[in-house]
């Protein structure tokens, strides 16, 4: 018996010596480690693995303090070097490991089959030992080991795991702090770089806008002065007037893009649903764009392909702006040749799709530029070679945002020196199919030049309109446009005067057009007071306030229709006629 006891004591001494040697090696190896991963993997390999335990996982509490994350493992959870098989997260307070993290007290479970807290990770094991990794009384993580046999872990094992956790805790806490600091430094660096890039881009944008607005302003002011002084012959005056109009339209489009970009960034864009007559819509686009193409000596082709529905439901304003941006972009970057717009339709998975394709024979873009072409304030062409091409770098950003908002897709292909193709595919809102536009046409479709839209010389003949506008220039312009279209127009320079005119002759007007910001009585109050009289006629809010909440405010005040400045003199009378006809 004495010999047996002596042998056991000798075996225990050998085991203790091995444990001490492993702990010594572990302590020495930890001294040179600084990263969290190095420390955690060193715990599982140098300490746990060399001691002969079959399984161990190091859990660390995440920065949010709510969950435990597996950071290193030994055994079947570690199929390859520094790889954890199917890593899991355990909420603090959940399971045996979570209980240790919550209380800071070790858990020794001799038979997990009788403990409902046991969480099956990979293989079921009967024994579990979970020891907290504590630093100054605060739980940093949990050292967890499992074994297939019940009652496996001894008191010596508990002391050993507790010692390993204690030896690693200070260094691990320091490494975690450094990791957090490095992460914060990286995030700050990335944020600074992003801010610097955004600042640079916006500075370039402001410089570009300043340049591009001063250029047309120079033409507008200069030619306007010449016209005011009565200089030039008939042809010259006609050319100067055309220049004033073209430069004004350019500035209007630029301002519109800037405002749209602001709305996109603030998340204020909403999608409406309008039933669009494809033929009339295309004709309007042709009227708006053909003069720009002809001024540059470019051909312009607008085609409605066979099979295109007669009507399509979409947000008319956004669709107009999307396509106009594509067309003006194509014309701007095309020095010779032409630009074409084609519209067609197809069905994919029982859902109809409208295809809008703009082709040009312009300067094109390298494939490397296509990745950044939708980024705001970005202009990808060679500004040295093509320094005269103006723009803000917002057009395609807005096109992409509008396409996304309407549930569509956009694709660009381009070849330097040969041209660019932009294809937009849109799903319908509430689709209404009617007879095909091209029923009697050839398979290739037909040019819009063959299409005609009924026009009326005096679309407002007999209409009686009250215009309330404090700007004398704008008021005079509206009066001229409406009277040329056949309307009888009365004007007021503020809401108070307009209300007086309305009450003096309550049955004298078919329609009221009012600005919103006026002295004495603004447009909102004017509309409210007119509605309080019980008048149910059309009131059009015509305002420079163009955000979505502005329209909501106008409609709440009593307007039936909402239009924004600047107006398009060529289509304004028709827009008012449509209001009266509605």
Describe, in plain words, how this protein is organized in 3D.
The protein has 582 residues and is an alpha/beta fold. It has four domains: 13-184, Beta-Lactamase, CATH 3.30.450.40; 204-264, Signal transduction histidine kinase, dimerisation/phosphotransfer (DHp) domain (Helix Hairpins), CATH 1.10.287.130; 272-450, Histidine kinase-like ATPase, C-terminal domain (Heat Shock Protein 90), CATH 3.30.565; 464-581, Rossmann fold (3-Layer(aba) Sandwich), CATH 3.40.50. Helix content is 45%, strand content 20%. It contains 13 helices and 19 strands. The strands form four sheets. The chain has a six-stranded antiparallel β-sheet. The chain has a six-stranded mixed β-sheet with strand order 12-13-11-10-8-14, covered by helices on one side. Helix 11 links the parallel strand 17 (511-514) and strand 18 (538-543). Helix 1 runs parallel beside helix 4 and helix 2 packs antiparallel against helix 4 (155-228). It is elongated, with a radius of gyration of 38 Å. The chain starts with a helix and ends with a helix. The relative contact order is 0.06. The model is unreliable at 381-392 and 431-456 (pLDDT under 50).
Q: What's the CATH topology label of the largest domain?
A: Heat Shock Protein 90
Strand order within the widest beta sheet: 3-2-1-6-5-4
The total tally of domains equals 4
* Measured distance between first and last alpha carbons: 112 Å
The biggest beta sheet reads: 6 strands, antiparallel
Helix content: 40-55%
Compute the CA-based radius of gyration: 38 Å
Pairing-aware structural class of the strands and helices? alpha/beta
